[in-house]
Amino acid sequence: MLDNLFSIAGKVAVVTGGSRGIGAMIAAGFLASGAKVYISARKAGACDETARRLSEQFGGDCISIPANLAEMSGIEAFATELSKREQQLDILVNNAGVSWGAPLDEFPELGWDKVMNTNVKGVFFLTQKLLPLLRKSASEEDPARVINVGSIDGLKTPVFDTFSYGPSKAAVHHLTRVLATHLVKENILVNAIAPGPFPTYMLSTGVGGGGDVDQTDWDGVGRGNPRGRVGTAEDIAGIAIFLSSRASAFTVGEVITCDGGSVVSS
Fold first, then answer.
1. Is the pTM higher than 0.85?
2. What is the CATH number of domain 2-196+231-258?
3. Do 146 and 189 meet the contact criterion of CB atoms below 8 Å apart?
């Protein structure tokens, strides 16, 4: 058993928000480890292109199913399409997320609702709609897995004026514990990852890169982190693979930081 402790070979996984950033990093790690991966994103072109690129790079199956997972219609359409393709689902990574920045006195209702709908409502209802496929995979010996991607902004006060983002991620962390309590008896294990600084579009917009990941000064951003750098694909994929494998089969309802020491040092 110990030689396969971290194996996810042959597993079927879904990674939402998988066209870029942390989602693409996790999808890459899963593919490199022998899993079949479905990715989803709102923008069909970007989702299709990432699926093609990752399939070529890792020689595995990365399949694009574009969807707006902030709306029930998009969630139901995604679940229906996946059910046509797969009999069961081993791993669900709820990574799709958005943020909104504005001064406190000017923060709009749209910025509140869009963030909460995507980051919290979407996580709950996609998990709900995919429960039939997760239940078909789940067994006492090999549980199905749900991994929710939160944020260190849900554990400490954010540095940016993103007033709905931190509360939305705090809600994801607590939703993780609630779902874990209900689903552990069905051999579906729910845990969360709270990432810190990674080289993503979202963080680039906050640190002055304007969303241009390649042109952002990540070395400069990393100097403000206790580890002296930003996160890498190996960092986030490693945690996700752990939470999807036999190694974490007794880990339930946890929120694991992957932040280079940001929270513990704050």
1. yes
2. 3.40.50.720
3. yes
